Structures
1.
Amino acid sequence: MKNSGVRIPDFLQIFHLRDTKFSEWYSVLELKDSQKFISFLKKQNFVDQGNNRFQKEQFFVMINGNHCIVGTSDLAFEKIQNQILQTSSNSMRDADEFIQNTAGSISFISGKKIQNFSIDLNKDEIEIKNNSNTEVFKAIASQLQKTNHFMELELDKDNIRNFSRFFNKTIVDSSRVSYLKTTANLEQVNDTIISYEYDDNFNEVEKKTFQKIAQPNYTIDITSNDPNTTWKYFQSKKWINSENQFTAIPFQPNVITRNNNGIVIKSTRKPVILSPQLKENYILIRNNALLYSSLKMLSSNEKKIISDIEYVLYGNKSKDYWVKIKAKNGELPLILRW
């Protein structure tokens, strides 16, 4: 990018707009030479869409005078052009409102209210947090190091509601779910593919082929204020079939049952015992070669980065949030490895 016609900024701001899809993220860059930047885009195999718009796979670029808008979508380009690029300088925010003495920041803006989460880049980990007191989260991490499951999580009603906003805003209140605990492991299994061919006499012949795929073994314990209401809600969504399988999870087979406290979903291939209850809010995902080897769409560099990660841990206590991306120990710090 150094000699592409882009003015290298002191910091890069990537933003998401209200009422747009979660997958839509944008940034605005200042240009020193727009024609040089267009030449750079063409060399990078961006397709000219006309009207100073370019696209390469999931990346979109729109050039507007001495600025360009970059995004994972082009749906909000006009809105950004009208609200940001043509806005008076009097309404611009100061960078110090968002970032102070850290490598980066994630900020949530609602009117005049700004909630900042600092991003600290350490030797072999990245920490994102909104409170410098991390003793609770260190205690959670210490407890989880005693197990080796691929995924473990405990979430209360508020955390379930926060995460379900990405999928269905009403799922918590409609289903009466109040608590969720999950333990899962990954396993490589043989998947059978059945196809049909015809012989010389036009008789149908069944053909079986096999492929190795990664499948999770899991137990999901759902606590509900009203298990019958939860069960009926899942049925109304057609998530429970006639064989009492929970179809919202694509990894079959499994079985769903209800009890006095709620609902339990278990994979049937290999039983998994729930890890001890910590009574905290967390999500832990450990790295596993079966996970990144199955992601065919990733480049070799992306696979290298993912393979270097040891685990990702999310934690919450009251209004305090914390995320750690822990890399494997290495001779070089992350900033030089990635």
2.
Amino acid sequence: MTPYAFPMTATGLQRALAAQASAQKQQDLQRYFKTGPGQYGEGDCFIGVTVPQIRKIAVQYCALPFPELKKLIRSPIHEERSAALFILECQNKKATAGERGPILSFYLEHLQYVNNWDLVDLTCRDLLGRAIADGLQDSSILDQLAASDNLWERRIAIVSTWYFIRQGQLDHTLRIARTLLSDPEDLMHKAVGWMLREAWKKDPATIEQFLQTHYHHLPRTSLRYAIERMAEPTRQQYLKGTFW
């Protein structure tokens, strides 16, 4: 049964997702997203729908209004929250400047449901990062999120700066990366390193100076991610700390 067979409501989208669900994929996703006790995704619920399947269904429901999206983004089912965020991202791309403000407000009001790394990485660059660049939101929100006790809000802070990196602006990335150097979570070490790697592609000299300045405080995972695209001799220098 295709998504077209279901009504254009939150319930219709939920039924479309359920029609694609796989018990084997459910088990795989539960393991992949670390949903066990004490893991970062503890308690997250999957029904076993792949990202391409979610995206294909979400595209058909791109016109869903906020009241319907609210039902999805507040769902305990990961794929339903993911679909809501795909739709929000789709609407944001098509929106006029005046329409993007309410979309951003909806996103910020529901940040507590953007609670796994894939949901963060799907949305924050173009929803929050772009809004800051366009003056719809003050950049101080990045510092507020970076100081949060919530892992996912801290990840939003650093990954949102990807929008600025793509414009060749690195100040936000470097500032938030400095704030997060002592973060205890490995997922944050990876995110910081990832953004430093993206920034290095734009301005190698600036990022290499940052890495050297903060070398003794930079988590090893962040360093490995940051230097991944460097030439092998240079990469080895950073791994060994022999660039002085």
3.
Amino acid sequence: MTAGNGGPYDEVVGTAMTTVTEAEVLRDALGLLKDREQVAKRLLDSSAKHSFDPDSELDWDAPYEDGKWFWPPELVSLYDTPLWKRMGEEQRILLSQHEAAALASLGIWFEIILMQLLVRHIYDKAATSAHVRYALTEIEDECRHSKMFARLIAHGDTPWYPVSRAHQNLGRVFKTISTTPGSFTATLLGEEVLDWMQRLTFPDERVQPLVRGVTRIHVVEEARHVRYAREELRRQMLTAPRWSQEFTRITSGEFARVFSVAFVNPEVYTNVGLDKREAVAQVRASGHRREVMQTGAKRLTDFLDDIGVLRGMGRRLWRSSGLLA
């Protein structure tokens, strides 16, 4: 059997060369990853220095101030639509209050899912590692955030806005079947878009002081969560089996579609005296709203593209979600 004639020998050698090349690429890529334990130790140090107790940190007894927004007007879903232009200032501010409550409700739903995913992630890992100890610290953070969001909703005259029953059930399925990289992709999706909006909210003096305080705490603590999730997802997309990587691409794209729809609960329009169908139609047609959502997601989608999540069917699903330009 001789080389160079296109026979079985060449096929074996060609396969071996491909395998070696892929192994070398993987080894080089892994060399660029930051040490998991060192990252976790730095995050634990940061948590010890920059964590907050919302119950004592914020003034929950102060009344809301007349004429102040509950969310920057440019981030309210109907901003710059024909319906918005017909609304008076008082109704616009009321809509911002209900949308803030709806986002807080969505945040609680998402963080409860996230806490379960984190528990699954560390289930079979050494509890003495810094990586696991930080995951437990993050779960503690998320418990406080959920209680803080719930208290914010209860503080105003707004209802609790649960996600639809279909999305509730999809959440149950996702947290049951999700792979580790899929879990961290969903984590970043839920954290980074809202984080971008909150970074615009807490310094905005047009917004209610209590809302600014809530968003400030969330931004500071979520920065650590994003770092943890990004580092782990980059590692997982290099080391996970190919089937898991592809499954992550598809499930993350579908979760992006769910998230983009659930981001504003249509009941907010009814509760502020607007026609729900007309409002939903105008939000969907709004170029400003589309730009807001894509801008809020851009840092995340650039990262996901860089590590290989936005490929094939997954990329098409992300595009259909409206979050990917």
4.
Amino acid sequence: MPNQYLNSNLKVFSLNSNKVVAEQIAERIGVKLGECSVTRFSDGEIQINIEESIRGCDVFVIQSTSYPVNEHIMELLIMIDALKRASAKTVNIVIPYYGYARQDRKARAREPITAKLVANLLETAGATRVITLDLHAPQLQGFFDIPIDHLMGVPILADYFSKKELKDVVVVSPDHGGVTRARKLADRLKAPIAIIDKRRPRPNVAEIMNIVGHIEGKTAILIDDIIDTAGTITLAANALIENGAAEVYACCTHPVLSGPAIERIQNSKIKELVVTNSILLPEEKKIEKIRELSVGPLLGEAIIRVYEKQSVSTLFD
């Protein structure tokens, strides 16, 4: 384990959303997690105490803004303010999963752009840099006026599937918007791609239309950035099998898995769902079909490079 950062000005703190990833990040860097406590008053107000000096330090705070989203965002905002007032040199926030990312534009009249609002809140609180993973739309980087390092989960997923040595693979995008992501995975697996053309009549409801590309007799790998209620991905898997695919795997970076998701996955044609631990999965969601991969080493390496003022983009060359 590297230990050159043990007595440095690099500090890593974890809030409540994903302490497992935070511990993996700290292990990769070779430091202990910083001492802080997150408590609540009887009316639910959040109180944070930083229990060590961080004056003049480069501080990295690990917090996925996953369920309960608003609680975790508020924890993060209060932590940023506490660090700023305690004279941290820089306040770098590491957000493995960025909540509200799907509210990134006005699709209808009088809708908010909440992803931008959250970015504004983080900046106003005092964040000096953001490190995040697989934003729902890469354009969200432009919502920030501070540096943002946008990491990719595809290499982690690709490495897993490469080691499985699957035969006759086709990478499938569940919609037109995910084609670029599917292409990145396909390039790493040296496989062709296919696209599922679907129509979404209302939120969280998807209707499969047809499949563009050759999938008959092939091992299909569906890829998405987020799987929420799992309606799209399970319907897509069923459609692939009905149209002649030999077997179907699925993968995503962010396993939101809300509502009926686990039941749908369990009853679907998906042989295995591969996810990362950008969102902490409770034990009841860790079914046999789900395989979890760690993003801790990737995020830890990114933090080291930011601290050492090295290139982060070369991580993916």
